[in-house]
Specification:
88 residues, single chain, 76% helix
Length: 88
């Protein structure tokens, strides 16, 4: 999780500009973010405390925004996203 956070932070701050040209690296970030979304969704379905529900809603929104950003980056590199496979 720490590696994903570090790479995502660098991507958002522009530090990965020259490094992110690698399709494999971008695909890996998308995969990790998708796993994060699925994990958040599972946790959301299992909690009953209202404060935790709010927390997981916030986490899901943030992770979804990150995933959307990665899809835009993927497309900006001229790569095609399989919408059916990548939808969460």
């Amino acid at each position: 999780m720490t590696k994903m956070f570090s790479q995502t932070k660098k991507l958002f701050t522009g530090e990965l500009k020259g490094e992110i040209s690698d399709e494999k690296q971008l695909t890996e970030l998308m995969r990790l973010t998708r796993e994060e979304l699925l994990r958040i969704e599972r946790n959301y379905k299992e909690v009953t405390d209202e404060d935790l529900l709010d927390y997981f809603m916030y986490c899901r929104l943030a992770a979804q925004q990150k995933y959307n950003y990665l899809i835009k980056q993927y497309r900006a590199h001229g790569l095609k996203v399989d919408e059916q496979k990548e939808c969460v």
